[in-house]
């Protein structure tokens, strides 16, 4: 398992490094694209090379087809819609009870297209690393039940930097929240066994938060692009504080229930892998 994790991680991250440190500078020198075009090439190239590195790992090391990389339009649409609804409902409730107050409506900005692409790429890369590489390899060795909490905890820990300026309560709520979300997205992956459906759910979740005018996982910079400008009018445990709605106890409760229901459905459909089946 450790060798597989090392090899898979090296091929994915190594492919990204080769592109960023080798191919991207070459493209810049040869074609001299505008800064905007170069930025778009960088984002697309990072995603493509990461996927390519994972594909090479699966084909050469695991000696199988990378079925989890197949494009399944219906699953992708359902994944995206369910991600938006799952976070959209508790955010709407927070508006309804006055925890979030609307200051003004700006309307949509064309800059949102670029942010949407960035969010989509970031979500796909996180799902590739944490669900396709980390979760799936640990699952193959130790089974689904053990793999879910392991990758969920590691997924949460890598978000600690987002609340570095906050207090202990901010960190605790974030860890609880993102651990639950890590388990939820692992559940989506188990249920669909598809990277793109899981990434669509993750990306739609994040983009819905952005559109609502609240911090996205502690990121404040994009709030000025949101169609809505809002302010908090409730305690941090309810609003989510500096990390945004993901750290709201309401969102944590909704995500926990959704995770339990999803994993129960996946288990009943025989989608769990038992530890004894690791070989």
Q: What structural class is derived from the secondary structure elements? A: mainly alpha
Percent helix among the residues? 55-70%
* Major sheet attributes: 2 strands, antiparallel
Low-confidence stretches: none
Please report the total strand number as a whole number.
2
Strand content bin: under 5%
Straight-line N-to-C gap: 11 Å
Count of alpha/pi helices: 9
Mean pLDDT rating: 94
- What is the CA-atom radius of gyration, in angstroms? 19 Å
Structure explained in plain terms:
- This protein is mainly α.
- The chain has two domains: 1-65; 72-277, no CATH class.
- It is built from nine helices and two strands; from the N terminus they run αααβααααβαα.
- The chain has helices at residues 2-31, 35-62, 73-96, 111-142, 144-157, 168-192, 195-211, 236-239, 249-268, and strands at 100-105, 228-232.
- The chain has a two-stranded antiparallel ribbon.
- Helix 3 (73-96) runs parallel beside helix 7 (195-211).
- The chain is globular and about 55 Å long.
Helix-strand blueprint:
Elements lengths: L1 H30 L3 H28 L10 H24 L3 E6 L5 H32 L1 H14 L10 H25 L2 H17 L16 E5 L3 H4 L9 H20 L11
Helix pairs in contact: 1-2, 1-4, 2-4, 3-7, 3-9, 4-5, 4-7, 5-6, 6-7, 6-9
């Amino acid at each position: 398992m450790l060798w597989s994790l090392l090899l898979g991680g090296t091929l994915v991250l190594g492919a990204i490094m080769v592109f960023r440190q080798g191919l991207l500078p070459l493209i810049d020198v040869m074609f001299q694209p505008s800064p905007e075009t170069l930025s778009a090439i960088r984002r697309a190239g990072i995603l493509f090379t990461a996927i390519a590195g994972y594909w090479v790992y699966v084909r050469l090391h695991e000696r199988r087809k990378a079925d989890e990389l197949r494009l399944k339009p219906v699953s992708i649409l359902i994944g995206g819609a369910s991600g938006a609804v799952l976070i959209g409902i508790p955010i709407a409730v927070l508006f309804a009870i006055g925890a979030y107050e609307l200051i003004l409506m700006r309307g949509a900005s064309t800059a949102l297209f670029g942010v949407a692409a960035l969010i989509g790429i970031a979500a796909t890369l996180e799902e590739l690393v944490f669900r396709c590489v980390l979760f799936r390899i640990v699952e193959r060795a130790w089974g689904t039940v053990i793999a879910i909490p392991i990758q969920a905890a590691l997924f949460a820990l890598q978000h600690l930097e987002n609340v570095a300026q906050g207090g202990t309560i901010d960190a605790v709520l974030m860890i609880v929240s993102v651990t639950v979300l890590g388990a939820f997205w692992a559940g989506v992956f188990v249920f669909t066994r598809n990277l793109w459906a899981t990434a669509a759910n993750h990306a739609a979740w994040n983009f819905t938060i952005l559109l609502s005018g609240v911090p996205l996982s502690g990121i404040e910079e994009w709030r000025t692009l949101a169609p809505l400008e809002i302010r908090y009018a409730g305690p941090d445990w309810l609003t989510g504080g500096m990390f945004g709605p993901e750290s709201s106890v309401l969102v944590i409760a909704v995500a926990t229930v959704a995770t339990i229901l999803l994993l129960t459905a996946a288990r009943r459909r025989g989608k769990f892998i038992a530890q004894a089946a690791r070989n």
